[in-house]
Specification:
The protein is of the alpha/beta class. The chain is built from six helices and twelve strands. Strands 1, 2, 3, 4, 5, 6, 7, 8, 9, 10, 11 and 12 form a twelve-stranded mixed β-sheet that branches. Helix 4 links the parallel strand 4 and strand 5 (148-163). The radius of gyration is 24 Å and the shape is globular. Mean pLDDT is 83; it is low at 21-30.
């Protein structure tokens, strides 16, 4: 504290002030200056990797642990079919790497975290989503890359909005309103290993996943009769946890164990004949956003395993309400 500092001799106090100044330069001024200097370079590199326009609002370099924080990141151009929003908007993306990666070793992320992330997906008349078209056009690396370990992944306040064409959209949904949304308050995963492109890992690699506050909804078109019920319109899950490993080879399934779902609740609210309830509209829109088109499936060279195996599953406090 201040009394202890004043008890030091004059030379000792000067040495402390010099040390504090050096720490300020090394851990504050240098990272900020380096981040501002490299922002344009990183923006161009990310654009090259994803094969789409990228805007980067800011960049800060972290010395301990080594890494960087990207702020106000946008991927893609404004899409008229998605309320003139880019494909992705991320308020903050932080990447930390291992010391081995820092000194030229294979890529190894010790932490990857995203905050306030938005994904705006449009679906065309053929049922093809802008997300899948984006994934299709990502350039393949010229050289084979090794598997990418991610020790910790964190996602906070994420939202995916899906916009359908008039032919697939429910009558009465405004053009500037998403047909379905998927929201997550918090998600984390540990022990992730991403295999090389178009390859399987060749062994089991279990990842631990936690999700809190999951909601899937569609716009309210009309008030239901009765207007209120014990469950909120749409689908929501309070908590999900599981362990999962991708298929190690083409003859083996993906495996899921210790799958636990707490407070899975939904309401199918019927408003008038011929109009689908919110829960069907929301799930239908989200599934179209994530669905492979027939053209894309036939072109994909990525190997697949033999389905999926759920070893254990627990469901607590679930409820579904039908009214209207």
């Amino acid at each position: 504290g201040v009394p202890a500092l004043m008890a030091l001799s004059k030379r000792q106090r000067i040495a402390c002030y010099v040390l504090l100044g050096l720490l300020l330069i090394v851990f504050v001024i240098v990272p900020l200056t380096l981040g501002a200097f490299l922002r344009g370079t990183i923006e161009a590199r990310v654009q090259q990797e994803v094969g789409a326009p990228v805007k980067l609002g800011g960049l800060s370099i972290n010395l301990l642990p080594p890494g960087a924080t990207l702020s106000s990141l946008e991927v893609g151009t404004p899409d008229p079919s998605a309320n003139n929003q880019p494909l992705a908007k991320i308020s903050s993306l932080r990447v930390n790497v291992s010391l081995g990666t820092l000194f030229g070793g294979n890529p190894h992320l010790t932490r990857l975290s995203l905050s306030d992330a938005q994904l705006n997906v449009s679906v065309n008349e053929k049922g093809q989503s802008s997300l899948m078209r984006f994934l299709d056009q990502i350039p393949k690396p010229a050289e084979k890359k090794p598997a990418l370990p991610i020790d910790t992944f964190v996602l906070k306040n994420a939202r995916m909005s899906t916009y359908l064409p008039p032919r697939l959209s429910e009558k009465g949904v405004p053009a500037d309103t998403a047909d379905g949304t998927l929201e997550v308050d918090y998600a984390s995963a540990g022990g992730i290993i991403i295999p090389p492109q178009d390859e399987l890992l060749g062994r089991e690699a279990w990842a631990d996943i936690r999700v809190e506050g999951l909601r899937c909804r569609a716009p309210v078109l009309e008030k239901s009769e009765p207007s209120s019920g014990s469950l909120e319109d749409g689908l929501q899950v309070q908590y999900v946890s599981l362990e999962i490993t991708p298929p190690p080879d083409t003859s083996s399934p993906a495996k899921i164990r210790n799958l636990r779902i707490d407070r899975l609740q939904g309401a199918r609210v019927f408003t008038k004949p011929g109009q689908a309830p919110m829960i069907e509209r929301a799930l239908g829109a989200v599934s179209l956003a994530l669905k492979d088109s027939p053209d894309r499936s036939s072109k994909s060279a990525a190997p697949e395993g033999a389905g999926a195996l759920i070893e254990s599953f627990t469901l607590n406090n679930a409820g579904m309400e039908v009214r209207g």
